[in-house]
């Protein structure tokens, strides 16, 4: 695909994948921004049960890609899996507008997500010729698309739901998913013409034992990390409602707007951070991926320590500026760990098993979301300061686990790169 005119220094297909993913994430985060409030305020479900439902839903949404990735690699092909999965998800979002369909709607979204989620990013490598250095930055660019959708979602879906009715917010999320599908269909000519479709007669790569062990170690570490990380849409959102003074003069900031801070900061922080990493790499000081991820986990732990201190020292409700500072530190740490992890799983995928391997990355979101749901049940049983300190400790444990993987992961990446260039 080297003859195609580049868009923003990358293949045009990356822009199509970027925009498709942006609108899919708009639909997902739009619904997620409303979910815990909808359950506790409209459906009158208790906080503990709502936390478990929230964790179970996000877990299932990232469990179904395990099956969906295999289906995409071996049966449908990536394009058909994306179109089919996106259509199912759009239907589920529109079903959320009807209270009796609440649980079937959650299940429908999770099923569609299983086909869509691993198939889209696994197309990124197919856009580049072997050895193209741009692929190293492609996943950070792709991650910005995730967060543009995540930034817009609470502002649009959250505001509609909070001010005009929950069902308007859910309907807006469904429209976002439809827009993503239309962009993907309209930009198909920029995507790889030949898909890898694997049948029983076609040989594929296989997972080496060393690769499986290292990826399993990363998955375990990220699962622990997500037990703390995923609280931003759950217990941190509850604290933004009950523990934060949201007054800005005569205006009261809607509680869902704070969930836009994280993706907004991703968009603002990513370009300078990429320049910094590139300069370090050109100067021969490239940071090992496992160390980079461990650094990110420690930063997120530091953000939760900040909340613990604020909750301990605040007299009544805390000023909303502290929550903004929390999200700044939290997001900076996130950029070190999550795009790096996704890129590792994609780069270490055997031939013909791209969607399957990327699906394995989403298993960490499944297991981490289950852990986060369970950790969230402690919110009503602990003081807020102690609870946030617990989240900081969980993130620190994840950082320790990641540091132990530095040497085996560095060796595996070197061997993998040698194998690709031979």
From TrEMBL:
<dbReference type="InterPro" id="IPR018456">
    <property type="entry name" value="PTR2_symporter_CS"/>
</dbReference>
<feature type="transmembrane region" description="Helical">
    <location>
        <begin position="385"/>
        <end position="402"/>
    </location>
</feature>
<feature type="transmembrane region" description="Helical">
    <location>
        <begin position="167"/>
        <end position="187"/>
    </location>
</feature>
<dbReference type="GO" id="GO:0005886">
    <property type="term" value="C:plasma membrane"/>
</dbReference>
<keyword id="KW-0812">Transmembrane</keyword>
<keyword id="KW-0472">Membrane</keyword>
<feature type="transmembrane region" description="Helical">
    <location>
        <begin position="320"/>
        <end position="346"/>
    </location>
</feature>
<dbReference type="Pfam" id="PF00854">
    <property type="entry name" value="PTR2"/>
</dbReference>
<keyword id="KW-1133">Transmembrane helix</keyword>
<dbReference type="InterPro" id="IPR050171">
    <property type="entry name" value="MFS_Transporters"/>
</dbReference>
<keyword id="KW-1003">Cell membrane</keyword>
<feature type="transmembrane region" description="Helical">
    <location>
        <begin position="141"/>
        <end position="161"/>
    </location>
</feature>
<feature type="transmembrane region" description="Helical">
    <location>
        <begin position="22"/>
        <end position="40"/>
    </location>
</feature>
<feature type="transmembrane region" description="Helical">
    <location>
        <begin position="101"/>
        <end position="120"/>
    </location>
</feature>
<dbReference type="GO" id="GO:1904680">
    <property type="term" value="F:peptide transmembrane transporter activity"/>
</dbReference>
<keyword id="KW-0813">Transport</keyword>
<feature type="transmembrane region" description="Helical">
    <location>
        <begin position="249"/>
        <end position="274"/>
    </location>
</feature>
<dbReference type="InterPro" id="IPR000109">
    <property type="entry name" value="POT_fam"/>
</dbReference>
<feature type="transmembrane region" description="Helical">
    <location>
        <begin position="212"/>
        <end position="229"/>
    </location>
</feature>
<dbReference type="InterPro" id="IPR005279">
    <property type="entry name" value="Dipep/tripep_permease"/>
</dbReference>
<comment type="similarity">
    <text>Belongs to the major facilitator superfamily. Proton-dependent oligopeptide transporter (POT/PTR) (TC 2.A.17) family.</text>
</comment>
<protein>
    <submittedName>
        <fullName>MFS transporter</fullName>
    </submittedName>
</protein>
<keyword id="KW-0571">Peptide transport</keyword>
<feature type="transmembrane region" description="Helical">
    <location>
        <begin position="295"/>
        <end position="314"/>
    </location>
</feature>
<dbReference type="GO" id="GO:0006857">
    <property type="term" value="P:oligopeptide transport"/>
</dbReference>
<dbReference type="InterPro" id="IPR036259">
    <property type="entry name" value="MFS_trans_sf"/>
</dbReference>
<feature type="transmembrane region" description="Helical">
    <location>
        <begin position="358"/>
        <end position="379"/>
    </location>
</feature>
<feature type="transmembrane region" description="Helical">
    <location>
        <begin position="52"/>
        <end position="72"/>
    </location>
</feature>
<keyword id="KW-0653">Protein transport</keyword>
């Amino acid at each position: 695909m080297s003859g195609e005119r580049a868009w923003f220094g990358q293949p045009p297909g990356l822009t199509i994948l970027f925009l498709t993913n942006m609108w899919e994430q708009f639909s997902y985060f739009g619904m997620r921004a409303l979910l815990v409030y909808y359950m506790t305020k409209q459906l009158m479900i208790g906080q503990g049960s709502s936390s478990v439902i929230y964790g179970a839903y996000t877990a299932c949404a990232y469990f179904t890609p395990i099956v969906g990735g295999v289906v995409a690699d071996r049966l449908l092909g990536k394009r058909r899996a994306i179109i089919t999965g996106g259509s199912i998800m759009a239907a589920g979002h529109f079903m959320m507008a009807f209270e009796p369909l609440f649980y079937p709607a959650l299940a429908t979204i999770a099923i569609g997500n299983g086909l869509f989620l691993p198939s889209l990013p696994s197309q990124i490598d197919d856009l580049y010729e072997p050895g193209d250095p741009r692929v190293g930055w492609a996943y950070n660019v792709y991650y910005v698309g995730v967060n543009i959708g995540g930034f817009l979602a609470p502002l649009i879906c959250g505001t509609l739901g909070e001010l005009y009715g929950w069902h308007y917010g859910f309907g807006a999320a469904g429209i976002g998913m439809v827009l993503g599908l239309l962009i993907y269909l309209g930009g198909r000519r920029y995507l790889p013409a030949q898909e890898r479709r694997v049948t029983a007669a076609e040989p594929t790569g296989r997972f080496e034992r060393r690769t499986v062990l290292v990826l399993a170690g990363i998955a375990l570490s990220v699962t622990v990390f997500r037990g703390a990380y995923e609280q931003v849409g759950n217990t941190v959102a509850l604290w933004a409602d009950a523990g934060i003074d949201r007054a800005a003069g005569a205006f009261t900031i809607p509680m869902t707007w704070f969930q836009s801070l994280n993706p907004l900061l991703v968009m603002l922080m990513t370009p300078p951070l990429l320049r910094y990493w590139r300069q370090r790499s050109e100067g021969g000081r490239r940071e090992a991926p496992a160390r980079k991820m461990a650094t990110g986990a420690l930063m997120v732990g530091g953000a939760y320590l900040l909340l613990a201190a604020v909750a301990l020292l605040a007299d009544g409700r805390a000023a909303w500026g502290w929550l903004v500072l929390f999200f700044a530190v939290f997001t900076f740490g996130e950029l070190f760990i999550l795009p790096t992890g996704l890129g590792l799983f994609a780069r270490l995928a055997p031939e013909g098993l791209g969607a399957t391997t990327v699906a394995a990355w989403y298993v960490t979101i499944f297991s981490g979301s289950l852990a986060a749901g369970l950790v969230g049940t402690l919110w009503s049983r602990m003081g807020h300061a102690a609870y946030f300190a617990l989240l900081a400790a969980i993130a620190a444990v994840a950082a320790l686990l990641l540091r132990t993987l530095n040497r085996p992961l560095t060796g595996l990446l070197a061997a993998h790169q040698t194998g690709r260039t031979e």
